[in-house]
From TrEMBL, chains A, B:
<dbReference type="GO" id="GO:0004594">
    <property type="term" value="F:pantothenate kinase activity"/>
</dbReference>
<comment type="pathway">
    <text>Cofactor biosynthesis; coenzyme A biosynthesis; CoA from (R)-pantothenate: step 1/5.</text>
</comment>
<keyword id="KW-0547">Nucleotide-binding</keyword>
<keyword id="KW-0808">Transferase</keyword>
<protein>
    <recommendedName>
        <fullName>Type III pantothenate kinase</fullName>
        <ecNumber>2.7.1.33</ecNumber>
    </recommendedName>
</protein>
<comment type="similarity">
    <text>Belongs to the type III pantothenate kinase family.</text>
</comment>
<keyword id="KW-0418">Kinase</keyword>
<dbReference type="GO" id="GO:0015937">
    <property type="term" value="P:coenzyme A biosynthetic process"/>
</dbReference>
<dbReference type="InterPro" id="IPR004619">
    <property type="entry name" value="Type_III_PanK"/>
</dbReference>
<keyword id="KW-0067">ATP-binding</keyword>
<dbReference type="InterPro" id="IPR043129">
    <property type="entry name" value="ATPase_NBD"/>
</dbReference>
<dbReference type="GO" id="GO:0005524">
    <property type="term" value="F:ATP binding"/>
</dbReference>
<dbReference type="Pfam" id="PF03309">
    <property type="entry name" value="Pan_kinase"/>
</dbReference>
<keyword id="KW-0630">Potassium</keyword>
<keyword id="KW-0963">Cytoplasm</keyword>
<dbReference type="GO" id="GO:0005737">
    <property type="term" value="C:cytoplasm"/>
</dbReference>
<comment type="subunit">
    <text>Homodimer.</text>
</comment>
């Protein structure tokens, strides 16, 4: 069995307990289950793996959020209570309570912040650093506060006292900034596996 | 007398009590005082107005912040106690206490957020809206929370109970989101005028 999480930048592959990230998809001999937020990359996957199964058609998830991304649904499925942060191209933040999704928000990812500052002025170069507590007194710190620090502020506000679960490429870096937090690299794949088990029960 | 604030996107002109924003600079008959954060635009100003005076060389300002932009210095000069937010291409936030600058941070401006989301995915279209209190349950609200809402969260945190002064192109829009706030369209020019008075006293 191979699980594929198609993001906006990469294919994230889960096979034999290992996660890899690839730009171009290949054919798999094993049965393929996938989710996708990118139509073009999904087409390429289906050309190489015509029998791949889209788990979007089988997942059960309680939310009032219209158009919640399937990757966010999967990341949330294994968390009953807590905040789920997936830090990739975008940083998505979702709040779970009693296995219900209460809502969430979307911030730019760290690389997108970097590019955003770069388009404003060439002197605004974001180099991600651990955030200091004191008010910034240099451009380096000011850019970190105004981007990563602003997102951190809002995550802390919505988290109240809940535990925060991080996943995604920048998840580990962000996780270290929070006290009651845990980094889980296969969070999305855990949700996909739960969905497959639910399918098989029927 | 004409005051020119050269930003990264526009020339902001103060003349006879009126503010205008232009892309290309012209020659003025009056005496020109200016500040600049953009070298190319400054060169063009000096070609058309060779006797223009750069107020950066005359301003007095107490801060430990290294490399604080001259536009931020001028916006802060007329505020003794409070938070100063200049919302243009970037959103700069500075904290003043007893006429001392304590530090500040830099976030992307609203247009830069818009472009940043656009580069992640074409479905992430930020349309700035007044922020609702409830957790977002749609992509529109989620993008507003995760960008403008995150910056708002950090402004509120650093402001504690201080009054917040807004200026810049998106200043009015942001100002309406805060309780103890005021929008002052000529805040940077007020600082420039104080500096000219200080120069003349010598």
């Amino acid at each position: 069995m191979v699980l594929v999480d198609i993001g906006n930048t990469n294919y994230h592959i889960y096979k034999d307990g290992n996660i890899t990230h690839i730009k171009n998809i290949c054919s798999f001999e094993e049965k393929v289950y996938y989710i996708s937020v990118n139509n073009e990359k999904e087409k390429d996957l289906l050309i190489k793996n015509p029998h791949a199964i889209n788990l979007k058609n089988y997942v059960k998830f309680k939310t009032r959020y219209e158009g919640l991304g399937i990757d966010r649904i999967m990341a949330c499925k294994s968390i009953k209570d807590g905040v789920v942060v997936d830090a990739g191209s975008a940083i998505t933040v979702d709040i779970m309570e009693n296995a219900r999704h209460l809502g969430g928000f979307i911030s730019p990812g760290i690389y997108a912040f970097k590019k955003a500052f770069g388009t404003i002025s060439e002197v605004l170069k974001l180099e991600p650093l651990p955030l200091k507590n004191n008010l910034p007194n240099s451009t380096d710190e000011a850019l970190n506060w105004g981007s990563i620090g602003a997102v951190k502020c809002l995550i802390e506000k919505v988290a109240e006292n809940k535990k925060i679960y991080f996943t995604g490429g920048d998840g580990k870096f962000l996780c270290n900034m929070f006290e009651k937090s845990e980094y889980i690299d296969d969070l999305v794949f855990r949700g996909m596996m739960i969905t497959i088990k639910e399918m098989e029960k029927k």
